[in-house]
Amino acid sequence: MGLYILRRLGSLVVVVIIVTLFSFSLIKFIPGDPVINMVGYFDPKKIGALRHQLGYDRPFIVQYVDWLKGFLHGDFGQIFHGVSGGSPAYAQIKRALPVSLELMAFAMVLTLLFAIPLGVLSAYRNGTWLDKIFSTTAFGLIAIPDFVVGIILLDFVAVKHGWLPANYTYWGQNHLDHIKSLLLPAISLAIGQIAGYMRLLRSDMIQTLQEDYVAMARAKGMPDRRVLWLHALRPSSLTLFTVAGLNIGALIGGTVVVEVVFQIPGMGTELFSAITQRQYQEIQSFVAVIAIGYVLVNLFIDILYTFLDPRVRSARALA
Amino acid sequence: MQELSLSPEAGTAPVGGGADVAGAAVEPVVVEQAPSRKFGIGAWLASIWLVGLAIAALIVPFTSLTTNPKYPNLADVGPFKSGAHIFGVDAIGRDQLSLLLWGARSSLILGVGAIAIGMIVGGFLGLAAGYIGGRTDTLIAGVFNVLLAIPQLVLALALVTALSNDQPHISGTSVSFTPVSPARRLIVLIIALGIVSIPVLGRITRANALTWAQREFVLAARAQGAKSLSIMIREVLPNVLPAMFSIALLGVGVVIVAEGGLAVLGVGVHDPSVSWGVLIAGNRSAISTGYAYLLMEPVVFIFLTVLSLNYLGDVIRARFEFRDSAL
Amino acid sequence: MIRYRANGRSVTKAVAAVMVFGLVAAACGGNSGGGNSANGGSTVTTANEANLKPQYGGDATFALEADTTGGYCLSEAQLAIAGIQVARSLYDTLTVPTANGTYVPFLAQSVTPNATFTTWTINLRPGITFSDGTPLNAADVRDNLNNYRGQADPGDPKPLVTGELFPFVFASVTSVKATGPMTVTVTMSKPWAAFPASLYSYGRLGIMGEAQMHDPKKCYINLVGTGPFQFKGNWVPNSHMVVVKNPHYWRKDKDGNALPYLNQITFQTVLETSNLIGNLQSKTSDLADTDNDIAIPKFITAAKNGTMHLLESDTDTEIAYTLLNEKTEPFNHYSARAAFAYAVNREEYNKLRQGGLLKSASGPFAPGVIGNLPATGANGTNLPDYDVAKAKQYAAQYKQETGHTLTFQYGTTNDADSLTSALLIKSYLEAAGMKVSIRQTDQSQYINDAIQGTYQALAWRNHPGFDPDTQTIWWTCSAPAPNPQPAVFPVAKKCDNPVNFSGFNDAVINNDMAEARGTTDVAKRTQLYESVNKEFAKQLWELWGYYVLWTVPSQTNVHGINNLALPTATSVNAVGDKPFLGLASGIDPAPLWMSK
């Protein structure tokens, strides 16, 4: 097991290096000069001097290695403010990451809160009109893009009626407003997912309900509700949480459009504006953090799974 | 950007052996065969919508429908003021129906094109990984992981700005301006979103290839000394295709939506092309300005299209009973 | 100064808002709700405030259209109106404009020229301290001015934080000396009668404390000023910035009570139209600075219903226009410029894209600015207006001159609203026989294009009013201009001033701007700036579009918006001139208060 984790960590390093190298080269291809962008210089000499000072005139690979060294030492590079100002990109990531994570967690809680009861119910009532209504609705909801939900909610709920705020509020500013300001974006992200998870859980539960031990429990006279929530849901929930975990991994940085629509200062918005401003070092570190997050979450789930399901372990042993 | 891989259904990483990061090896869950997923009236409606749309998108260049705001007629701006514009007229006098059909053209080409890349590249890699296994499998799984770990936004934004910008060329003191061709932007978008779809389709293919690779007839073919490549293509591929195709249908929808996300960020298709995403992005504040139909029409078009694609994908899945919901 | 409306890290819409010919409008064919009087000016839709007694305390949430992530190292910062608004809460300028367009001392007690306007003596107001406790003295002001201009007299501290623009503004300043503990003497190579206007520079020339200027790396965030509010480090870029009351602020209200009234202001970055409207309607924001054409009609309605207050002004505002590049084909040809000018239906465009809110510009000088002229009539600029036949005729003439069809790229930012506006412009141009492609770039690229001259035509905005002398840096060149101006601008003669993005070099403009700089004679200056105005209309170096309309929407319990009189030379109480009416440099935050 230890060896397995070690090997996986090794592959993590490789993945992160390839990903960052790749993104580093992509960013360099984008036209537009970070130096001019920073300072608005009209004088080519000054531009050249600043470019030199920042090391942007060095060979590509040197710049990359330089960045990587810094990154490994916890230096995520600089964000440039005007001609002389600079602040560590680390602070920016430290601020943006929790915002995104919180939004994702919020969306996830909403998702599971609705998806689990609905999924269980429609599995239990498999084939009835209730199930059909749920399934059809879920099917339709999946087809609505999250940012469209966001745009419509924002315009209708916040702008037209002013029921909820249209702007993000930090926890430190006002607790209640903070929660309120996350509600609409979380709903936008959750709607499609509720439908997806519900369908997943439903088909999984239908299977489980046909298993012998469930039939046994029923035969013993255990009430349906108990069978459903205690015996049937437990194995199915494993599936659900694994998928949920995988989703989190990919959602880091994947909530961009919703973040942009609601002006949530999370990873997505920050990354987008960093690209817009050609803040090379910041983009680079954001990409690395997102990639590491993605790989780590996957690794974690994999390991967890190995513990929970011995069959996987034996499969691994064979591989 | 809509996560390409992550609708729990389209993206559930399939079963597999060793080095797959996401795909833990578990017994596949066989999806129950819902009776409603037979090729019934729903499937017919979905097919009719998609085929109709495809035909409209094909012939729209040969009609008089144009997206030019050539003769902005103030009297016509607003919903349904003139019988000539059954879907209304947008803020600068463009006929909304024309926009929607021209938009269908870009959106469908984009969706199908990107998924074609994903199918071909991802399909081949997945097939090889699943059939050959061993180191090949490890390597390809690594490639998929790398592709999945790159934030899709960075990939798409960078590709579009790097490869399809109308950056003037400076030589000495003279500057020359060559406009970006919308076709080129479309191709770059297809490539960008195609790359993103490679690991998704690749993994599905791999998982299915893995199960088929152990079947008797494949083993028999191998015993008879058939070449690997030939077995892969003759024996494994035909059996894997329905699964790929089903996921590909979902994928087309996801790509269409993803372009919408890019359009919101300002890197959708390029003028004079329009796409549904561009129309949605362009009418973001339409509800608060009383022109909600400008936003809702492309939304409905995307909705119906994605719904139809998902439904047909489901029908195929139910028909062929393959294993896809693996986790 | 350059009006990067959305400075730095801003997302689509604010990016859009940059310098756009048609601004940012979107689908709103709504009626023209603009409440402006016919000749421009300010309209206030608020209750009569004369009898209200200001109350102390409170935290106002002030929505701004962008965050200045470049920070507030004023001498090098690129401040748009949002940034200026924040800067005005933390810093004071040496001079300020008044309601009648003159400049009076503010942080200074007096600003006096010699007879030839080549030496200016600035006397500072006594007893003012910076937020770090150090008193304001002549050395501080000298060092500020040196940082702005990027030079120092021998023996004085070297400037450490100098931006790109102000060295051009103060190019003719040869020496800045602290000639007494509270006296600074500025010497210049040429007469500069309008120098006090540049000491304000649209509110950008705030005086920073030495502690801020000493550390270049931290200058952007270590904000030390004398303003009504202070910065305590609470700033989350792209989200909000909090400034708290300066308990020792030097200005007092007319009764001698301490200012400011508010305990703190939370500046909130609100990029998107929807969010802006939503915030004011849900009372998440107490007030805002905005020129958003979609939002303004909403606020006008709300103000009419009495649910909100609204202050509007297009006096002394900036101009939305098309920036042409005369350094290259095709706009070095007069025929190409004329074809463009005649092709665009500004009136219809305004209705379709700007809710009918904006007034077409007659020239680069907004109402309220000297040199402003009517569009038509004997003394009008007679700027070309929509006439397809003439547009076609000029396009044909261009083809005759060059042998090919008039073809060019029209640049706009890459958000959807700007694109829609650009498409409409394109359709006008194509209807007149031109071939136009739209080039959409993100904001960084956009500004680079203008600076490097890699564009043909860009949607742009600049030239806020105040004193026309402040436009000198944008339009004048020192290299000799072709005289008379031929039909095709000789590119070899292009402007040697890199801040003149278009690159034109015009003898009349060069001479008149320079001559006007040397005099305070109002009649003379008016005549010279009118001549500049007419020359622009004659040569069509830029295609003037609209006067930008700025508004301050607010909740009904917010008071004191732009109504505090200025101090006088002898009194720090608000007993002097009425404040400037224009909103292009934000509002004075000191008198803001909220009723409970």
Can you offer a commentary on this structure?
The complex is a heterotrimer of chains A (319), B (327) and C (596). Chain A is mainly alpha-helical and 319 residues long. Chain A has helices at residues 2-29, 34-39, 44-54, 60-72, 89-124, 129-142, 146-160, 175-209, 212-219, 224-251, 256-262, 267-276, 280-308, 310-318; strands spanning 78-81, 85-88. Chain A has 14 helices and 2 strands; from the N terminus they run ααααββαααααααααα. In chain A, strands 1-2 form a two-stranded antiparallel sheet. In chain A, strand 1 and strand 2 (85-88) form a beta hairpin. Chain B has 10 helices and 2 strands. Chain B has helices at residues 8-11, 41-59, 96-132, 134-149, 152-163, 182-213, 216-223, 228-264, 276-282, 292-320, and strands at residues 169-171, 174-176. The longest helix of chain B has 37 residues, at 96-132. Residues 1-36 and 323-327 of chain B have low confidence and may be disordered. The longest helix of chain C is centred in the C-terminal third of the chain and has 18 residues, at 522-539. The model of chain C is unreliable at 1-41 (pLDDT under 50). Chain C has 16 helices and 22 strands. In chain C, helix 9 (334-343) packs antiparallel against helix 11 and helix 15 runs antiparallel to helix 16 (522-539). Chain C has 596 residues and is an alpha+beta fold. Chains A and B meet through helix 1, helix 6, helix 7, helix 8 and helix 10 of A and helix 1, helix 4, helix 5, helix 8 and helix 10 of B.
In short:
By secondary structure, chain A is mainly α. Helix content of chain A is 78%, strand content 3%. Chain B has helices at 8-11, 41-59, 96-132, 134-149, 152-163, 182-213, 216-223, 228-264, 276-282, 292-320; strands at residues 169-171, 174-176.
How would you describe this structure in keywords?
heterotrimer, A: 319 residues, mainly alpha, two-stranded antiparallel ribbon, 78% helix, 3% strand, B: 327 residues, two-stranded antiparallel sheet, 2 strands, globular, disordered N terminus
